[in-house]
């Protein structure tokens, strides 16, 4: 055992995963938009099934060439890091995700070389004023058009273009649609990707970001008070008004996800009120198609590891890792946990050497990706590490399902 390293483990220790080299297939992701309407108050008080919104008509056009679109689903509450996660994932497939060029400046869609990210808020069937009229939140199922969501995701997966609606987060209105051409990887992110069983069946790999109430509250205070000037009372009122619908409709979806990232208060600092140090778990389901869980040291063992000492610069409160088997909603899972944060991110390479089944193409790729995105929130703790690992898994899922390879993207 290395000096300065403490470990409690059952079973023997093994080393890192196999490395492979791949070549990226070329592809073109196209995107064009309809004309942007004037900002006008369009109250949507009818039900989703009968609203008759002309701007959300499904118009399919055959996509050129034979291509299988893989659908990745990401569920989380608002303000829980979906945008940062998407940027980490899409970068692994080449290019930085950007809004569609020449289109609606308020579009929620992001496009990179091989991926398209669509926001499921675009399938609201009630605008902000319609929800107010009906007394429902944006989380309520009756505020969503699940029929159109299903039809369009299914069409994209079948290689057909669709005219997807746009929910304008600035005005709260429903804008004219934009054309989505099938990409290699379609990422659907939002509140309800797994809620409707028809939509859930279309998703090839599913991820849920599970932020604890304590951390979510601390994050919202930091963002809304410091950056937006909101009062503490208004923040509390907003959280409380959404909580019943979140508990009823959003939170249960994590039971359907293949991987769950839980963000919790640290256990290294008693009564940490600021919640700046986090304990993050990556809960990985077993027996998922084209997916093998990442493990620490020895697969299936239970490991508690404090990797501080000569290899890591660890100031208070330090870093602690855990790995072991567990159950989650009655299913067998492997849990990888990190509590604390890195002082020097380049020292992650030492931790990477003890992780196996990472889906990295070469030793050091995890560290390389983390250093590439140091400006992203969570880059020095478990949120950034596990988002990066899941991004590598998404790449591997794509390669296994399509029998195509993606070249590793250099820093």
From TrEMBL:
Family annotation (Pfam families): PRK
The Phosphoribulokinase/uridine kinase domain, residue ranges: 71-269
Pathway(s) the chain acts in: Carbohydrate biosynthesis; Calvin cycle
GO cellular component: a single term: chloroplast
InterPro entries in UniProt: P-loop_NTPase, PRK, PRK/URK
Classification via SUPFAM superfamilies: P-loop containing nucleoside triphosphate hydrolases
Main location: plastid
Record GO terms (molecular function): ATP binding; phosphoribulokinase activity; protein homodimerization activity
Alphabetized UniProt keyword annotations: ATP-binding, Calvin cycle, Chloroplast, Disulfide bond, Kinase, Nucleotide-binding, Photosynthesis, Plastid, Transferase, Transit peptide
Subcellular location: Plastid, Chloroplast
Gene3D superfamilies in the record: P-loop containing nucleotide triphosphate hydrolases
A biological-process GO annotation: reductive pentose-phosphate cycle
Enzyme Commission identifier(s): 2.7.1.19
Catalytic activity: D-ribulose 5-phosphate + ATP = D-ribulose 1,5-bisphosphate + ADP + H(+)
EC supergroup of this enzyme: transferase
Keyword S-adenosyl-L-methionine: no
NCBIfam families: PRK07429.1 (NF005655)
Family: Belongs to the phosphoribulokinase family.
Protein name: Phosphoribulokinase
Source organism of this protein record: Chloropicon primus
């Amino acid at each position: 055992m290395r000096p300065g390293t403490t470990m409690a483990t059952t079973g023997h220790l093994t080393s890192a995963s196999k490395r492979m080299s791949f070549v990226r297939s070329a592809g073109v992701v196209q995107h064009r938009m309809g004309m942007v309407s004037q900002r006008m108050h369009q109250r949507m008080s009818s039900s989703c099934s009968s609203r008759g919104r002309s701007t959300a008509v499904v118009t399919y056009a055959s996509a050129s060439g034979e291509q299988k679109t893989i659908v990745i689903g990401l569920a989380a509450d608002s303000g829980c890091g979906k945008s940062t996660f998407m940027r980490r994932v899409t970068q692994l497939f080449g290019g930085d995700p950007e809004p569609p060029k020449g289109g609606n400046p308020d579009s929620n869609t992001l496009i990179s070389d091989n991926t398209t990210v669509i926001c499921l808020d675009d399938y609201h069937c009630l605008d902000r004023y319609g929800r107010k009229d009906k007394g429902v939140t944006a989380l309520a199922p009756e505020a969503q058009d699940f029929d159109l969501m299903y039809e369009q995701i299914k069409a994209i997966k079948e290689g057909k273009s669709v005219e997807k609606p746009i929910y304008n987060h600035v005005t709260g209105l429903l804008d004219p649609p934009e054309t989505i051409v099938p990409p290699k990887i379609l990422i659907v992110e939002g509140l309800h990707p797994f809620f409707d069983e028809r939509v859930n069946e279309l998703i090839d790999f599913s991820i849920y970001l599970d932020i604890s109430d304590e951390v979510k509250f601390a994050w919202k205070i930091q963002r809304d008070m410091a950056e937006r000037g909101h009062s503490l009372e208004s923040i509390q009122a907003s959280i409380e008004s959404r909580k019943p619908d979140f508990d009823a409709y959003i939170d249960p979806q994590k039971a359907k996800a293949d991987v769950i990232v839980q963000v919790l208060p640290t256990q290294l600092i008693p009564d940490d009120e600021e919640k700046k140090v986090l304990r993050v778990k990556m809960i990985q389901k077993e027996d998922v198609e084209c997916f093998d869980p990442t493990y620490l040291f020895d697969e299936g063992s239970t490991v508690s590891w404090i990797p501080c000492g000569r290899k890591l610069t660890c100031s208070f409160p330090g870093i602690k890792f855990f790995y072991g088997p567990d159950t989650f909603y009655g299913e067998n899972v492997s849990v990888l946990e990190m509590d604390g944060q890195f002082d020097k991110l380049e020292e992650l390479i030492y931790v990477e050497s003890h992780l196996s089944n990472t889906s990295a193409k070469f030793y050091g790729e995890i560290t390389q990706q983390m250093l590439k995105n140091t400006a992203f929130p969570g880059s020095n703790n478990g949120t950034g590490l596990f988002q990066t690992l899941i991004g590598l898994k998404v790449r591997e899922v794509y390669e296994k399902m399509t029998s195509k390879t993606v070249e590793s993207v250099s820093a």
